[in-house]
Amino acid sequence: MLAMIAAFSAARDASAQCESTASSCVSCHEAQGLRPVLQGPQAWHVDHSFGDLCAACHGGDPLAGAAEAAHAGMSSPLADPSVSCRGCHAEDFSQRAERYAAAAAAAVVDAPPPAPPSGRPRGDGAVVNLVLAGVAGLLGISLFVVLRHELAPARGRRQSLGAWLAARGWNPVVAGVGLGVIVTISVVVCGRPIAVSGAFDKLAAYVGEPLFPSSPYYRYIMSPGITWQVWLIVGVLAGAFASSRLAGQARLRWLPDTQWAPRFGTSRRLRFALAFAGAMLVQIGAGIAGGCTSGLAISGGAVLAPAAFLFMAGMFAGGIPTAWLWYRGRRSA
């Protein structure tokens, strides 16, 4: 276990923090700050900063995680405006291209000389990987100690591994370390971070694309498809059902067992309406942030993406007072 975790810690350089909703263009260039442009002075980027439209203008592969694959097939947006601009601006694409070409020529004349590259040279990660290997080793030792304590003899009888797996509650340290191992295996072995919010966007596109065929969002950004995120959702549901069956808690329930009924009553319609509205807000928030609690907070935090820690800080800063507001004065049964 220790050797496996230490080996996984010597990972590649992260190419994108989250592949759930944002393209790898936005994830790398904007969220991770690798030559960001959307907040710059260029008129063309300012005009298109409202959406994830990088690939619509520049080409390339917005789903690729590696820079070489993402940049393959790129071209200048002004090289052929009938291809890069006409999809959204069918009526005045040539006039827009001429305006941007003039602005680009002026920007080249007025631009200062490029600054020398800053930061750590690429490939100089031996020390960082060594530190990460040490941290992974400590986590492995912690996991071993906690597992040994969990399976230790209680009242003269040693708890079996099957009984421990079927328990209704786990030690949070074990669950956290186990989640870290799963994220590592997903990234290293499968080459994918754990992210689920993009699955709902992909499934919703099956309805949105026929309803809005001229929408640039469904034409260039979110096409329908049964992607790996969709299969991940299927696996999460299957795993949750299997876990509840092992723990003897699988049954059909319309309302949560605790907290809900004392605060909101037993109306199923109210429950469904608030659950639907809450899910919509969560999905919108995930789109704005570029990921959800799995794709951005967990997977993004694992690769030390700055946006992940901002997301987690905002999640707790908003979630704690909201929970206190809705459930104040109520105790869990």
Q: What is the rounded distance between the termini?
A: 39 Å
Biggest sheet: strand arrangement: 1-2
Q: How would the global form be characterised?
A: globular
State the major sheet. Answer: 2 strands, antiparallel
The average pLDDT score comes to 74
What share of the residues lie within helices? 55-70%
Give the SSE order as H and E letters: HHHHHHHHEEHHHHHHHHH
Q: What structural class do the secondary elements suggest?
A: mainly alpha
Tell me the Rg in angstroms.
24 Å
Identify low-pLDDT runs: 1-20, 116-124
Map the helices and strands.
Layout: H1 2-9, H2 24-31, H3 43-47, H4 54-58, H5 67-71, H6 81-84, H7 93-110, H8 126-150, E1 153-154, E2 157-158, H9 161-165, H10 172-188, H11 197-211, H12 216-221, H13 228-246, H14 260-264, H15 268-289, H16 293-302, H17 306-327
Antiparallel strand pairs: 1-2
Question: How would you sum up this structure, described in words?
Answer:
The protein is mainly alpha-helical and 333 residues long. The protein is built from 17 helices and two strands. The chain has helices spanning 2-9, 24-31, 43-47, 54-58, 67-71, 81-84, 93-110, 126-150, 161-165, 172-188, 197-211, 216-221, 228-246, 260-264, 268-289, 293-302, 306-327; strands at 153-154, 157-158. The chain has a two-stranded antiparallel sheet with strand order 1-2. Strand 1 and strand 2 form a beta hairpin. The chain is globular, with a radius of gyration of 24 Å.
